[in-house]
Amino acid sequence: MQFNKEKNLNTSIRSVENNRILIGENYINYSCILNSKEVIGRWEGKNVDKITIKEIEYILKKEPDVLIFGTGKEPVTPERNLIFDLAKKGIGLEVMTTPAACRTFNILISEGRDPIAILIL
User: Fold this and answer.
1) pLDDT tens digit string along 32-78?
2) The pTM is what?
3) Is the N or C terminus of the chain more exposed, i.e. has fewer CB atoms within 10 Å?
């Protein structure tokens, strides 16, 4: 799936395929974490239905306004306590398939926002 981008950012997601994501000019072939400035690293954690706030606290130190969780090919319902814990910190949680999460991420960074995306391949 090819995407158009409005701004030429190093973290714009240009395409998503079964086993890789094109971010800027680089293919990533692993589940990853990124924000508007950088690919933060690999996501080695579980899917959103199995994680707690403690497992993502290190990510939240980057102070995102929203956390976008790409669940892979299938939608997954987030753990209820995770939603509440993030809301207490003033951080929204958007959960969707990874292709949808990539499109949402691009829209938000084109608006000048600073989301963090966790994208599961």
Assistant:
1) 999 999 999 999 999 999 999 999 999 999 999 999 999 999 999 99
2) 0.91
3) N
What is the rounded distance in angstroms from the CA atom of residue 63 to the CA atom of residue 6?
A: 24
**Which is nearest to 16 in space by CA: 110, 96, 94?**
96
85: amino acid identity, one letter: D
- Tokens read off for 33: 């974490």
> Which single residue is written with the structure tokens 């924000």?
35
Q: Taking the mean position of all CA atoms in its chain, how far away is CA 53?
A: 15
Sign of the torsion formed by the C-alpha atoms of 94, 47, 59 and 85: positive
80-90 per-position pLDDT tens digit: 999 999 999 99
The residue written with tokens 């669940």 in the block is 71
Q: Classify 31-119 by CATH class.
A: alpha beta
Among left, alpha and beta (phi > 0; psi -120 to 50; other), residue 90 is: left
Domain boundaries, the chain: 31-119
